[in-house]
Amino acid sequence: MMKKIFLLLLISALLIACGNQNRSQEKENDVQSTHPEWVYNAVIYEVNTRQYTPEGTFNAFSAHLPRLEELGVDILWFMPVQSIGEEDRKGLLGSYYSIKNYTEINNEFGTLADFKAVVKQAQGLGMKVILDWVANHTSRDALWVDTHPDWYVRDSLGNLNVMYDWTDIAQLDYSVAEMREEMIEAMKFWIRETGIDGFRCDVAGEIPTDFWEAAKDSLTRLNPDIFMLAEAEKPALNESVFDAYYAWDFHHKMNNVAQGKETVDSLRVSLQRMNDRFPPHAIPMYFTSNHDENSWNGTEFERMGEAAKSFAVLTYMLPGIPLVYSGQEVGLNRRLEFFEKDIIEWEDKGGFSDFYKELNRFKRKNKALLAQERDGEMTEIPNDCTEKVWSFKRVNNGNEVVCVFNFSNETVNVQFNGNVPGEGFSSFPDTSQVLPVEEMELKPWEYRIYSK
What we know:
Elements: H1 2-29, E1 44-47, H2 49-52, H3 58-62, H4 65-71, E2 75-78, E3 82-84, E4 99-105, H5 112-124, E5 128-133, E6 137-139, H6 143-147, E7 169-171, H7 177-194, E8 198-201, H8 209-222, E9 227-230, E10 244-246, H9 248-258, H10 264-277, E11 283-286, H11 291-297, H12 300-304, H13 308-317, E12 321-325, H14 352-365, E13 377-380, E14 389-396, E15 399-406, E16 412-420, E17 426-428, E18 437-442, E19 447-451
Parallel strand pairs: 1-2, 1-12, 2-5, 5-8, 8-9, 9-10, 10-11, 11-12
Antiparallel strand pairs: 3-4, 6-7, 13-14, 14-15, 15-19, 16-18, 17-19
């Protein structure tokens, strides 16, 4: 029986390897998209300005920049910084994503000059800055509602259209060419005036792809190295416009595995589905939390329990780009209010700062962990506990990273078809030399990472 299992796993590994080889050949032939040089080994950090400090301002946040540089993050993604509407506002302070004026700073956070200064300071420390862009809708009392009422989608009664339970927004009409042009001009404003390096685009899949194509063409004339992240899982967006996309399906599978609802096979299937659906240059962004997940679905500890750290490590080991949300680096275990003031507590009681610092350092050190277009080949390592243990390696230009994860709440004794990790490897994070073994015992949710 054991021989049959190993044979099936060997066949599976060969199929994955062949798929990787085909994708490598496609990458060599692909000329549609080339990412900025600073993207391939980057880590994104989402900034929730309102909750970051007691003041909730850009100036107060700037004091944290040296710490973030030391943490090792590369791209700062600021949630929207524009003025927020008052009509049908949710809560006292309102939603970041209900924008009143695309080119006006939210005075809750400071001035335009303050934002320029924090961008310049971050870039001076070697970080890039991207801005959250909400192109799908505005607030219900937005500047455009008065000046261009025909730029909006209306319901059967002629009222501003509401999507989902977003009762504080008004949906824009992308059949109006003039509105499209003005939206692009607003995006260009932030590049010209503040020198940002790109955009994270909210609900990007709700907007026609040809708009994003036109926007990208205009934006790259101002900054050829613009970085575009889509809050979507829509392959067409990554053909020629967006560098990266949300790995939403994979995120949900991680939650389900952590909760015992699915097995590791669901992760394999989700990853293969992304490889099959998306162009080979498209970069998935992996995450265990973000502003939506934290506030509405719970912290990573609520959703993943004791598996939270293991899945955080996985987001760094897969081909793609990892995300860290404000407070994760100190183990924040509380849902942050979305429409009210709710300050992050920065006391790190669980060693999470060192945890993320080591992960960031490890990713930067190992070329095998580069993102798509430069990524190391990923090959599954066959084992006899495939429903619980995911073992794989990534290889790139003489660098090799071997990963073994027990994604179950049970201790397992796992056998491999060969020696793991191999000769000449050191362990992560202690860098001690390790001997290859054919069998190992893994505690619940334990992971072992090796490199050479």
